[in-house]
Amino acid sequence: MAIAPAFTIHEAHLTPPTFTATETYEKAGTGAAHMGQLTVVSGIFYRFAYIYISPDQVFENLQGTGWTRQEMLDGIARAIKTFLISLPRGMETNFPHYCYPDFVLLIRRPAGPGCILHQAFIDPIPLRLGTHYLPEATRRLAETLRLIEERYKAPNPIENAACLHTGLAKIDPFFEPYLKQDLDEAINTVLNKEVPDAHPAH
Q1: Tell me, what's the pLDDT at 58?
Q2: Alpha-carbon separation of residue 7 from 110, 113, 168 (angstroms)
Q3: Residues contacting 73, CB < 8 A, separation 6+
Q4: Largest Cα–Cα distance in the chain?
Q5: How many domains does the chain have?
Q6: Residue 202 reports pLDDT greater than 50
Q7: Residue 201, by phi and psi: left (phi above 0), alpha (psi -120 to 50) or beta?
Q8: Assigned domain for 197 exists
């Protein structure tokens, strides 16, 4: 499993909050005062992961272990789900990162790596008061995916796809045929189809 660095889809601004603290000690009486500053930045991130599985190689490695193909797919499904719902743990008591993805796109291809859609966000999305970023973000993803598939004549075409979103805002119509009701259904849709050769999902 390869995971690309996450980055914001919009311009992110540093925020330098100032905080104060006072500690009171019974013996000292006066206590200790403190004033500090800690620069933070928040953003909406694009994340990408790629899993490559060669069934023949996997089955050869699993011979004698008693594992079945379904058990292998169950393990892959757990890995995908863990990636999608995993949250940053750094400084979690100060800056809790408890936001699940607003939009998830899963693509399965017959062999080789799929296209990374980073270029959709080379130009940051302008965020304006009263507007949601999701329609523009999914429009860019759809346009980038369509262009790559068409211009490169799909050397490694999409075999199966599924997506999920929170419903907080509209998504590009391109993805609507692939919408699923929950994350488990989306993952199972992508993984459970039989393929003759290697089948990465990203």
Answers
A1: 74
A2: 28, 21, 21
A3: 191, 192
A4: 77
A5: 1
A6: no
A7: beta
A8: no
36 inside domain: no
Closest CA to 202 of 107, 85, 103: 107
Of 114, 159, 131, the closest CA to residue 44 belongs to 131
170 vs 106: CA distance, rounded Å: 18
202 domain-assigned? no
Identify whether the C-beta of residue 27 lies closer than 8 Å to the C-beta of residue 99.
no
198 located within any domain:
no
DSSP designation for 23: E
| All residues at 6 or more sequence positions from 55 whose CB lies less than 8 Å from its CB, including other chains | 69, 195, 197, 198, 199
Q: Which amino acid is at 84?
A: L
- How long a stretch of residues is the chain? 202
Instruction: Residue 51: give the domain boundaries.
Output: 2-11+45-191
- The token duo for 79 is 């890995």
pLDDT tens, position by position, 44-72: 888 888 887 776 677 777 777 777 778 87
- Residues contacting 91, CB < 8 A, separation 6+: none
pTM of the model: 0.76
Q: Which residue type sits at 109?
A: R
